[in-house]
Amino acid sequence: MTEWSKDLVLSRMARADETLEDAHILAKAGRWNACVNRLYYACFYAVSALLVRDGLSSSKHAGVRGLFNKRYVKTGKIPKDLARTYNDLFERRQEGDYIDFVSFQESQVLPWISKAEELIGYIAGLV
Question: Each residue of 37-73: b (16+ CB within 10 Å) or e?
């Protein structure tokens, strides 16, 4: 891996941590849709860092998701229960951002926070 790639991995992991912190702030404020958005992006940045580590990338969110599932989940490098978090947040973020009248509730979102933390922590151990 080049020095630039190493720097990019570190940058994306830092961004994942910062975005996860944003999700906590939004949760405390009861802003559940925005919290889901930030949880998804926190995981997205971590998954993107993992892809960069291995010389992979995609310009589309669905492409990142596809590479993640193909290269890491199906091969057993990432446990399926952790991967489910990223895949679920991908769908929930789409709903919350683009579908009218979607309103997430505290009881739905709070479990996703700890699951996102677990996934990001797992990826941090790999990169």
Answer: bbbbbbbbbbbbbbbbbbebeeeebeebbebbbeebb
Non-local (6+) Cβ contacts of 76 within 8 A are none
Q: Where along the chain do its domains lie?
A: 3-126
Q: Is the pTM above the cut of 0.90?
A: yes
Looking at the structure, give the CATH architecture of the domain made up of residues 3-126: Up-down Bundle (1.20)
Q: Is the dihedral of CA 62, 106, 83, 78 positive or negative?
A: positive
> What tens digit of pLDDT does each residue of 37-89 get?
999 999 999 999 999 999 999 999 999 999 999 999 999 999 999 999 999 99
Structure tokens at 5: 């790639």
